[in-house]
Design brief:
Strand content of chain B: 15-25%
Mean pLDDT of chain A: 96
Largest sheet of chain B: 7 strands, mixed
Number of domains of chain B: 2
Low-confidence stretches of chain B: none
CATH architecture of the largest domain in chain B: Alpha-Beta Barrel
Order of helices and strands of chain B: EHHEHEHEHEEEHHH
Radius of gyration of chain A: 22 Å
Number of helices of chain A: 15
Largest interface: A-B, 75 and 59 residues
Strand order of the largest sheet of chain B: 4-3-2-1-5-6-7
Number of strands of chain B: 7
Radius of gyration of chain B: 20 Å
CATH superfamily of the largest domain in chain B: Aconitase, domain 4
Number of helices of chain B: 8
Strand order of the largest sheet of chain A: 5-4-3-6-7
Strand content of chain A: 15-25%
CATH class of the largest domain in chain B: Alpha Beta
Helix content of chain B: 25-40%
Shape of chain A: globular
Oligomer: heterodimer
Bound molecules: iron/sulfur cluster
Number of strands of chain A: 19
Largest sheet of chain A: 5 strands, parallel
Amino acid sequence: MVTQNSPKTLYDKLWERRCISTSEDGMSLIYIDRHIVHEVSSAQAFEGLRAANRQPWRRDSVIATPDHNVPTTDRESGIEGIADDISRIQVKTLDDNCHDFNIRQFDLKDKRQGIVHVISPEQGLTLPGMTIVCGDSHTATHGAFAALGVGIGTSEVEHVLATQCLLQRKAKNMLIEVNGELHPGVTAKDVVLYVIGQIGTAAGTGCTIEFAGSTIRGLTMEGRMTVCNMAIEAGARAGLVAYDQVTEDYIKGRPFAPKNALWDKATAMWKDLHSDQGAQFDLQYQFRAEDIKPQVSWGTSPEMVMSVDKLIPNPALFEQKSEDYQKALNYMGLTAGQAITDVTLDRVFIGSCTNSRIEDIRAVAQMVEGKTVAKTIKQALVVPGSGLVKQQAEDEGLDKIILDAGFEWREPGCSMCLAMNADRLMSGEHCASTSNRNFEGRQGSGGRTHLVSPSMAAAAAIAGHFVDITQDGVL
Amino acid sequence: MKKFLSHTGKVLPFDRSNVDTDAILPKQYLKSISKFGFGDWLFDDLRYLDPGDVRTDCTTRKINPDFVLNKPQFENANILLARENFGCGSSREHAVWALKGYGIRVVIAPSFADIFYNNCFKNGVLPVVLPANVVDSLFKLTAQHESIQLTVDLENCKVSYGNEQSWSFTVDESRRQNLLQGHDEISITLLQTAAIQDFENNLKSSEEWLFSQ
Ligand code: SF4
């Protein structure tokens, strides 16, 4: 039993701060501070509000942007310029709903438009201590700010719009600690892929994962967002990192961040957003940074991942999972014992809410400067996460480096992460992708996704296959 | 919402673990802005041999005869049986709309992904967690007989196979009541309007920055 004075985890604190009531069976009513809306999971929710003659409870808590289904080229004419009628109707429906219900939208023509999980932190709309929901499972990303971010379904979108609350059962506390110094070239993405490879995609089911340890503390906010983003791939609905100076420095001065006296009051309160000494976790894992090499996924689940210098594993070694693993290898057109660096790649995708922030674009530019994309690569895409990331990269001249190397430089959106728009793989193609899911067909029917970090994807584009970027002479 | 008390139906054995929502409903169908019409696209990649999108007339598509859902003995099956971590991946409620649209009323598995599990309740589809060994024996039973019928009784939280065998399961009481009574969750939450308002007013003074846009 947690009492007032017993040590608490960060998750316990966030939960208690927003829990309005808990029924006898353990379902709690949680107050929601920020609700982020996009075109794919909201139309039916707004329709539900209309049908029941309801209005949003608190409009100023809601922000909207189209991202999942927007084209990444030819954006001058806005919504009207979307070639695919069905996509256009969906984006237009969001636009209409935002007008009808008077909700703030960063629309297709707004510089601030972009992927939901990129723009909210960028604007200072994601703040520590908040509860944040979005009709998208990668809402876990916002946990990097010591905020409780959870992905919800469309009925829950409607529920939160109508009541400002979410019905939830408290999850278990899981701690994942990573300590030590990363090898040069090993990034936040490799850390989280490695962890998922070790614990499996179902390990976090029913849990909130707090990522801690010196390696995590040493990451930038961008890196922490990458890690929390993939908490859902470890089965957890939410991921968290404690508040510290890095968090504070990132937020300060952002457009919607508190200012002056309110800033002082806010930061004083945020300082408590960490797990107390001696807090109890239901499950714990510990990893060493030095064990982590650049990671590449070889299968159709994020847990099917390996170090770039290893051979593709033999499914027979995975006992009850061997059948699934063999199926995955068949789908991927790979064989056990093959070096992952021998796989010929067809496309490269750098983008998504996992890795499309300025730091990611910088890493790509650094890797490809003065080099050229391999002739065998049919397409290499860089899709910045927001209009502001794009602008910043252009201000730094990164777009030029990237274009000169033979990549395409696109407008912001989810793009080939889920291939709802025109950006997609053809059947059988292998893609080095900085996104978060390698499910069958995720990036296009029959497409074969290999999840990697931005630096690994960039190096793979140049070589035409994966390379171990920690080897001498590559970095 | 339609009430759910007890349901008897044919089992559709889908022998896979980690079935993700992309497999349940591929993303090209997320473009629809309606809640209806997703049934024809359930397990689309596995079910059809040719690709389709929102515009395709499914009656003209090539059926994959090897996929379980297309086998004649499982026609009109409405209880889906699967392995662990069913519904992982994206939060798309469209996956549940596809199951529901196809006619699935119950999904039985040893475990479910959290968001999918929640989404089921909102749509009157009952997710039932049974231990892995029980699920395994249900798969064996369906393999032995052409197909089997199960009764899923939410009033007594029991799954039964004929008069011979039954297994109990648990569901959160509030969720169970909502399904049994066909309640709309929003109306139930709005009964607490005063409490929500009080809570919000307190926040306005303790964390004003949340309200100052
Ligand atoms: S980038 Fe990919 S994972 Fe992220 S919100 Fe968009 S579709 Fe989802």
